Amino acid sequence: MEETTNQQQAPGAPAGAPQGSNPDVEKNKMMAIVGYIIPILFFVPLVGEGKNSPYAKFHSNQQLVLLIAAIAVNVVGGIIPFIGWFILLPIGTIIVIVLAIMGIINASKGEMKKLPIIGGFEIIK
Fold first, then answer.
1. pLDDT score of 21
2. pTM of the predicted model, to two decimals?
3. Angle, nearest 10°, between helix axes 54-79 and 23-37?
4. What's CA 14's distance to the chain center, in Å?
5. Over the stretch 38-70, which tens digit does the pLDDT of each residue have?
6. Taking every pair of C-alpha atoms in the chain, what is the biggest distance, in angstroms?
7. HSE-up of 85 (CA within 13 Å, CB side)?
8. CA pair distance 42, 76, nearest whole angstrom
9. What are the pLDDT digits (tens) for 67-113?
10. Could you give the dihedral angle defined by the CA atoms of residues 110, 118, 53 and 14, in that order, rounded to the nearest 10 degrees?
């Protein structure tokens, strides 16, 4: 027997996926995406009405952690000769780019999924 709920699923959306109907998500979605494209702008989702938004705070935190990871990859990869220059820096940069793309996808879907590897750190509360 199937259970019926009052929530309507969008066509093609997986069961249980956020539908983006939440006004908080819709209002802050574009700002959340901007911070993943240019990590130094992690604070953008928190500007204005976003400072009271759990969605904006979550993605700002993920973006700040991503920025710190990118800085760490560049500093460590730049300091260590040869191994850093030819292994750590290129692989670390690719990982940071992949994580940023994953963040953009999550933010555009209206989801609050933590990024793999670095998503567990909480700086902005």
1. 53
2. 0.79
3. 10
4. 20
5. 988 998 888 877 888 899 999 999 999 999 999
6. 64
7. 3
8. 22
9. 999 999 999 999 999 999 999 999 999 999 999 999 999 999 999 99
10. 20
| Separation of alpha carbons 50 and 48, rounded Å | 5
- DSSP assignment of 3-60 equals ---SPPPPTTPPTT---S--HHHHHHHHHHHHHHHSGGGTTGGGSGGGGG-HHHHHHH
Distance CA 66, CA 43 (A): 13
Give dist(CA 61, CA 66) in Å, integer: 9
Report how far apart, in Å, the C-alpha atoms of 114 and of each of 55, 82, 84, 85 are.
Answer: 12, 33, 27, 29
Per DSSP, the residues of 47-104 read: SGGGGG-HHHHHHHHHHHHHHHHHHHHHHHHHHSTTHIIIIIHHHHHHHHHHHHHHHH
Question: What are 62's two structure tokens?
Answer: 């993920």
Contact 99, 69 (CB under 8 A): yes
Q: Using CA atoms in the order 19, 24, 27, 29, what is the torsion angle rounded to 10 degrees?
A: -60
DSSP class of residue 113 equals P
